[in-house]
Amino acid sequence: MSLQKKLLTFAAPIALLGLSACATGLPTEVSRFQAMPAPQGESFVIVPDEGNKGGLEFSQYAGLVRQHLVSLGYNEAPSRQAASFVVELDYGVDEGRDRVVARHDPFPRFGRPYGYGYGYGRPYYPRFGYYGRHRSPFYYGWHDPYLYDDGLATRLESYTVYTSHLDMEIRRTADGQSLFEGRAEARSRDDDLTELVPNLVEAMFTDFPGRSGETVRITVPTKRR
Predict the structure, then answer these.
(1) Rounded to whole angstroms, how far apart are CA atoms 184 and 77?
(2) What region does 98 belong to: left with phi over 0, alpha with psi -120 to 50, or beta?
(3) Bridge partners of 164?
(4) Fewer Cβ within 10 Å of end Cβ, the chain: N or C?
């Protein structure tokens, strides 16, 4: 087998793997600080963050959080005054940033685009600061393969990347003591919150409450319609 055929045979499975990963899951960075007690019948109430006015959309996402907390052994309280914990939620998506794809072709006469340039994307500055042992803003899993060119590009294509987030804080009602602070953040080419927030909630509650000060990368399988 010629070198050209060997390279093309090797490249095809990798390309398919990358496309499959993008199509089947949403890679999410989850950072958590926690001092949550083991469930012993405590009750909770879910409220919007100060910058979120609530409403029907908020109620939909709060319902997902409610389901997770109940499944963990906590109970929903009838009012804020009767709750052991107050769960504060905030979510959103930015306006997006343009990216440029440099499509490479090491064998132009075959007319087949092959591979991408590699580099780093925008640094990740979370709401609660840097987490755990991570001191670099470039966390694992946030490599952006669409920024730099190595001189082999044959054409450029642009697209938009959106960054979505879910912030959740749990405070003790009696004294306002913070028991959990978490942030789930993901990048995607879609800004539809009705699709993104459920995935962020699922990632937030994966192995909840998690190890305090740890940032983990979680890929939530995308639900097909």
Answers:
(1) 25
(2) beta
(3) 93, 186
(4) C
